[in-house]
Amino acid sequence: MANWLAERCRVLWNRPVAERTWRMGLDSSAVALRIRPGQFFMVRLDREDPLLGRPYALYQVVEWPSATLGKALEFVYLVVGRQTALLTELRPGDELDIWGPLGNGFDVLPDSQELWLVAGGIGQTPFLALLQEITGARAYGLSPDRARPRWPIGSVRMFYGARSARYLACLGDFKSTGVRLSLATDDGSVGYAGPVTEPVAAELARVDASEVLVVGCGPEPMLRRLADVCRERGARCFLSLETPMACGYGACFSCVVSVRTGDGHDYRRVCVDGPVFDAEWLVEGGSGKAGQ
Amino acid sequence: MSQADITLEVAIGTLKLQNPILLASGTCGYVHEMVGAVEVEQLGGVIPKTVTLHPRKGNPPPRTVETPCGLLNSIGLDNDGIDHFIEHHLPALRGLRTNVIVNVAGKSVAEFAELCRRLDGQTGVAAIELNLSCPNVSGGIDYAIDPACTREVVSACRGSTRLPLIAKLTPNVTDPRPIAVAAVEAGADAISLINTVLGLAVDWRRRKPRLGAGLGGLSGPAIKPIALRCVWQVARAVDCPVIGIGGIRTIDDVMEFLVAGARAVQIGTANFFDPTVGPRLVGQLRGALESIGARTVAEVVGTLRL
Lengths: 292, 306
Ligand SMILES: Cc1cc2nc3c(=O)[nH]c(=O)nc-3n(C[C@H](O)[C@H](O)[C@H](O)COP(=O)(O)OP(=O)(O)OC[C@H]3O[C@@H](n4cnc5c(N)ncnc54)[C@H](O)[C@@H]3O)c2cc1C
Ligand SMILES: Cc1cc2nc3c(=O)[nH]c(=O)nc-3n(C[C@H](O)[C@H](O)[C@H](O)COP(=O)(O)O)c2cc1C
Ligand code: FES
What we know:
Chain A is α/β, with parallel strands linked by helices. Chain A contains seven helices and 16 strands. In chain A, the strands form three sheets. Chain A has a seven-stranded antiparallel β-sheet with strand order 4-3-7-1-2-6-5. In chain A, helix 5 (about 195-205) packs parallel to helix 6. The two termini of chain A are about 35 Å apart. By secondary structure, chain B is of the alpha/beta class. Chain B contains eight helices and 16 strands. In chain B, the strands form four sheets. An eight-stranded parallel β-barrel of chain B has the order 3-4-7-8-9-10-15-16, surrounded by six helices. A four-stranded antiparallel β-sheet of chain B has the order 5-6-14-11, with no helix packed on it. In chain B, strand 5 and strand 6 form a beta hairpin. Chain B starts with 9 loop residues before the first strand and ends in a 15-residue tail after the last helix. In chain B, about 55% of the residues are buried. The interface of A and B includes residues 48, 255, 257 and 265 of A. Flavin mononucleotide binds near residues 27, 49, 196, 219 and 247 of chain B. Flavin-adenine dinucleotide binds next to strand 4, strand 6 and helix 2 of chain A.
């Protein structure tokens, strides 16, 4: 049986946090109570164009006394097209429809000595809630005795890259978890100048990579490079994919990615079998382009 | 008259539905994906994704593209084949407390007949819907663009099963009526239509189609007028029940299809963007019938005046 629900939510806040990047809080009852780090939910505005909902990762759930159940569900979005542009026009009190929680989430991550989170651009969004569980600051989901992430925060690192400093969003939230944070920008305006995968490669060369679990989320070329880097250095790598989705809950078979099987390849739905995948299972770092 | 006097039951041949709202094949997965979030037991029935004789990987992504008020898809009948379906999906579907209509597609007349034979002995299968019209897999030739082919497939299936047979037709023809007539003459108990409308989305900068497979099928609110026209034409040409499909997402849409001649309807793309739409429409149907003084669904079917 599926574990998601659909609900209509009131917008509690909606404000810009970085270049073309906004954060929105929703008065959610069903989804906020159930969702766990690495899971996502679908958002739809009540109109025919755009027709479909769009997927967004859980950013965090915060205590919000004026909300129906005292909880607000927050997501962070980058304005890239039609829905995200319309989202910026919403004001507190406006309503939208959501359904979730969807996907497997970070509960599928295997054990490791060290955990390195690698975010490209808006791919940073799923990592805050995971870090909050690691530090014990928050507990997500309905079963409080679910196994918590077992990494001490001292063994966790985060690498976060963006186009330029103006696009780095919500740095304060990440810093407040105490995670060791390394930044990179394409234009060198802050941190390493170049793709975020390069400092990861350099650091992996300095440690026993077999003890490191790398988890990546970001644009497809970055994920492919990250998977290659990890394979070369001998680190395990999991990727959280952001394929376009029509339904988000497994009904349409549109969100597929190509995975290796005993006799070649097959397609799997990212919305139900992912979005978090073992990179070794994916054909071509998850581009789905092989084996046609 | 009160809403309690209104009955929603409809009959599709020997198949009795508690109400005329069904979920369309390919738009509700294998249904377990929505159980818990969607009260499927409220529905007249569900139609899982098309099953083929052998497993099919399906088409390369991107498999869907959104278009104005519509969705273009080329999933390519991604499924694990009839053996897997019977072993793995059917047991779960049997437990749903709603009618399960199994949709099948063959690459040949023999495959269609074999699929029907395999389903014939299975409990929990209320009817079989023949997908004669999927535009994504057959390399341009669809059974349901030709009356003679349609007749051949349907009669082979008729010979392989006693289950009610629903022939699902394509709108990608000049006139759907001769095909519907052929299907009924060959033994179909009902006609469902429409499947998706063949289309193309272009990325002009890359000079490439937006879909991985090139062409795709258009669905959603954009195709509703085409679907209504096809339902109206076919309902007047055949003697059997017609099931209307295409762009349905509101109770007004449902009523429009009933009036145009559909005895039942299927909800497709709307499941994607409004997952609980089916049970909600069931809940709204009594009120809509009451508002025009009707006590049964049958009273309004085909009452369109031109
Ligand atoms: C599991 C998951 C979690 C996600 N989490 C977040 C999140 O937390 N924050 C966030 O901002 N975004 C997230 N996304 C991506 C987000 O869903 C898309 O940015 C959004 O659908 C864009 O909608 P739009 O209507 O604004 O753009 P559209 O008008 O639909 O598209 C605009 C342009 O963006 C491209 N595009 C659209 N969707 C994608 C995609 N998924 N990948 C690559 N290109 C795309 C289109 O091809 C087009 O060129 C997530 C996606 C997935 C699958
Ligand atoms: C993503 C998608 C997949 C579909 N898959 C199937 C299928 O496997 N078999 C089938 O008979 N019809 C399939 N259809 C067609 C629908 O069942 C329906 O006939 C069509 O979408 C029109 O209805 P709608 O506008 O309400 O979606 C599919 C439609 C969509 C959008
Ligand atoms: S988005 Fe519909 S199956 Fe994944």
